[in-house]
UniProtKB/TrEMBL annotation:
Keywords: Cell membrane, Membrane, Transmembrane, Transmembrane helix. It comes from Actinomadura namibiensis. Belongs to the 4-toluene sulfonate uptake permease (TSUP) (TC 2.A.102) family. Signal peptide: none annotated. It is a multi-pass membrane protein. Its main location: membrane. It is found in: Cell membrane; Membrane. The keyword Membrane applies. The chain crosses the membrane at residues 6-26, 33-54, 74-95, 107-127, 147-176, 188-207, 213-231, 262-281. PANTHER family: MEMBRANE TRANSPORTER PROTEIN MJ0441-RELATED (PTHR43701), MEMBRANE TRANSPORTER PROTEIN YJNA-RELATED (PTHR43701:SF2). Pfam families: TauE. The keyword Transmembrane helix applies. GO terms for cellular component: plasma membrane. This is Probable membrane transporter protein.
Length: 301
C-alpha cells in the first residue's frame, strides 16, 4: 500500500476548516480527492465517509469538554439522520451512477449555502447595529422540523458524502438563529458522528472503500480537526462567523462547478474585501466613541 503524504497534508488543511466551522468535510474533502488525486467519485465518497467517522468524534470531544454542544438538538437530529444515512447508500446503489440526481442536489445545496452565507453577513451587520436577535446558549428545540432536517441531511450524506456539516448547519441556522456560533459548530460536529458512521457502514458494505485513501485522510484529518476544534471552542462568535461564511461561499461555488482557478481568485477577492470591511468597521467603531467623548457636556441653567 503506497502512502500519499500530499493527500495527508490536504486532509489536514481541510480538517482544520471542519474543526473551526463544523462543515466543509464532504464539500471540500471529496472534491479534493477527485480533482487533485484522481480518485474515482464513488471511492472518494466511500473513503471520505469512513475517515470522517473517525475524524468527527475528535472534534466533537473537544467541544463536549468545553460545554459548547446542545445535546437535545443532537438527539432529535440523530433520530432522523442515522436511518436516513444508511438508506441513502442503498438509494445511491439503486440509482446506479446517479449523475443527474447528484447534479440536482449539488445545485440546490449551492444555492442554500450562498443564502446561508448572506444570512450570516446580515446577522453580523444587525448585531453590530443592535437590531438583530442576540445569541443565547439556551434555545427552544422544535422536534418535528429538527428530525426532518436530520432525515433530509442524512439521506444526502449517504448518497454524496456532502451535507453532514454544510447542509445541516444551514438548516440549524434557519431554525435556531439565536444559537451561539461555537454551540452551532459543536452541536453540528457531534450530531454528525452517528450520521457519518451509519453512512460509512453502508459504504463499507456496498460502496468502493479504499484503505490507502482512508489511511492518508486519517493521518492528516485527526490532528487537523483537533486543532480547528480547539480554536473554535474557545473563540468568540466574531471570529467564527466570518470563517463560517467564507467556507459556505467556497462550498457553494464548488457545488456550482466553478473551475478551481476561478474559485481561488474569487476566494482571494472575498478575503481581501473582508479585511477591508473589517478595518473600516473597526475604525468607525473607534471614531464614534472618541467623538462623543470630545463633545462638551452642557449644563442647564
Amino acid at each position: 500500500m503506497d502512502f500519499d503524504w500530499t493527500m495527508a497534508l490536504g486532509s489536514f488543511l481541510v480538517a482544520i476548516v471542519v474543526g473551526l466551522t463544523g462543515m466543509g468535510g464532504g464539500a471540500l474533502m471529496t472534491p479534493m480527492l477527485v480533482t487533485f488525486f484522481g480518485v474515482s467519485p464513488l471511492a472518494a465518497v466511500s473513503s471520505d465517509l469512513v475517515a470522517a467517522a473517525v475524524m468527527k468524534p475528535v472534534g466533537s470531544a473537544v467541544h463536549y469538554r468545553q460545554g459548547t454542544i446542545n445535546m437535545r438538538l443532537v438527539a432529535w437530529l440523530c433520530v432522523g439522520s442515522v436511518p436516513a444515512a444508511f438508506s441513502g447508500v442503498l438509494v445511491a446503489r439503486a440509482l446506479g451512477d446517479g449523475q443527474e440526481v447528484q447534479h440536482f442536489i449539488e445545485i440546490a445545496m449551492g444555492a442554500a449555502l450562498l443564502m446561508a452565507a448572506a444570512g450570516l453577513v446580515v446577522k453580523g451587520i444587525l448585531a453590530r447595529r443592535g437590531d438583530g436577535p442576540g445569541e443565547s446558549s439556551e434555545v427552544t428545540v422544535r422536534p418535528v422540523p429538527t428530525v426532518l432536517v436530520g432525515a433530509v441531511g442524512g439521506l444526502i450524506v449517504g448518497i454524496t458524502s456532502v451535507g453532514s456539516g454544510s447542509l445541516i448547519i444551514v438548516a440549524l441556522l434557519a431554525l435556531y438563529p439565536t444559537l451561539k456560533a461555537n454551540q452551532l459548530v459543536g452541536t453540528d460536529l457531534l450530531q454528525a458522528v452517528p450520521l457519518v458512521m451509519s453512512a460509512a457502514l453502508g459504504h463499507v458494505l456496498f460502496g468502493d472503500f479504499r484503505m490507502e485513501v482512508t489511511a492518508a485522510l486519517l493521518v492528516g484529518s485527526v490532528p487537523g480537526v483537533y486543532l480547528g476544534s480547539r480554536i473554535s471552542s474557545r473563540a468568540r462568535s466574531g471570529l467564527i462567523r466570518p470563517a463560517l461564511a467564507f467556507v459556505l461561499v467556497a462550498s457553494s461555488l464548488k457545488m456550482f462547478g466553478v473551475p478551481l482557478e476561478a474559485l481561488a481568485w474569487v476566494l482571494v477577492g472575498l478575503a481581501a474585501a473582508s479585511v477591508v470591511t473589517w478595518r473600516v468597521l473597526r475604525r468607525r467603531s473607534t471614531v464614534v466613541p472618541h467623538a462623543e467623548a470630545r463633545e462638551p457636556v452642557r449644563s442647564g441653567r
